[in-house]
Design goal:
This protein is an alpha/beta fold. The protein contains 14 helices and 11 strands.
Length: 388
Amino acid sequence: MTTDPFLTGWAHTAFGKTAPETTVEHLMAEVSTAALADAGLEQPDAVFVGVFNAGLSRQSFEGALVGAGQPDLALVPASRHENACATGSAALYAALDFVQSGRGRTALVVGAEKMTGVGSDVVNDALLGASYRPTEEQAGSFAAIFGRLADTYADRYGDPREALSLVAAKNHRHGVANPWAQMRRDLGVEFCSVPSEKNPVTAGRLLRTDCSLVSDGAAALVVTTEDVARAARRRVRVAGRAHANDVFEVARRADPLALDGAARSFRAALREAGTTLDGLDLLETHDCFTLAELLQYEAFGIAEPGKGGTVLAEGLTERDGRLPVNVSGGLKAKGHPVGATGVSQAVMAALQLTGEAGEMQLPAADRAAVFNMGGAAVASYTTVLEAA
C-alpha cells in the first residue's frame, strides 16, 4: 500500500526580466541549491526538470543542465518534462510517481524558463506552439485564441468586461504582497477596465491587463516519502492529485467554455483528497488570461455557468473572501515563466500551509488546491496540498 508523498523543501527566484547573461542553467542552479538546503538534503535520488523552451533558448537537454549548474548533482539521474504551460506540473507529477511507487525516497523538482532573451516574435511563436497549429495558428497569438473564447462568452452570457477587470485588479492587488512577483502594483479596477495608451487592446476583448506577463524565473521543490518527511523541519502532504486532458483543437469540443478537462481534474483531485470545494482554504489557479480564471470558477463549481462575475463582485475570491484565489497575485501579477509556473504555484501554496508566506499569509490555511493547465485547458493538473 502506498502512502502520500510530501513536500519538505522549496525555493523561488524573483520573476521578471533577468540580466542578458542569465541563463536557464543559472536560474535552475539557484533554486536547486536553495531547495535542497531548505529540506536539509544533500542529494536527491532523482531530478525532474520542467522547461518548455520551444525555441526560447538554443540550449536544450535541460535535464542535464541541473548537474551542469550544480556539479554535486551531475551524477544524479535527471529527466526533462514538457506539457506546454503545465510543464512544471508534469515534472512534479513525475517526481510524485517516482517517490510514491517506491523507486526512490527523495526527488528534486525544478521548473524554469528564460523568456526575455529573445524577441517578442519568437516568444509569440513559441507560445502558439501550445495551440493546435493547423486550425488555430491563424489566430496570430495565443491571446487571440482566448479573445475568441471571450467573444463566445459574450454571445452566450453577455460582455465579460467587468468580470475580467475584477480578476485583473484582484490579482494585481494581491501581488503587491508577493516579494517574488514581477509586477507589485495595485492597478485598480478602473485602469483594468478601459483601453488606454498604457493598457491597449491585445486581442479582441482582451486588454494588456488581461494577459499574463512574459517572464524569466525558476522554482524548485523537494518531494519525499513519509518516513523521510518525518525528520524534516516542516512538511506539506500531497493529499490528492489528478491530471486530465481535453480535445486539443478547441473548436472540436462540445462546449469550449466548459473547460471539461479542467473540471474533471479538479473534481478527481478533491475526491482523492477526501474533501470538497468548501474544504479548501485557498486556490492557486492558472490565470494565463483573466478569462481563464473566470472560466475556471465556473468549471470548478465556484460559480454557475455565466455567473463568475457575480462571485467576483461579491468578493468571494478576495483574500478575505470565503475562497481566496491567487493570493500570490497569480500569473497575472507574479509572472508566467512557462516551465516554472506549476512548480511556483505549489511553492506559493506550501508557504501558506506552513505559515511562511509573510505579507501574503492568510489567517488560516490548512488545505489548498493548485490548478495548472497546458494550452487552452488541454492538459489540466490539480493538486491538493495539506498542512502536516
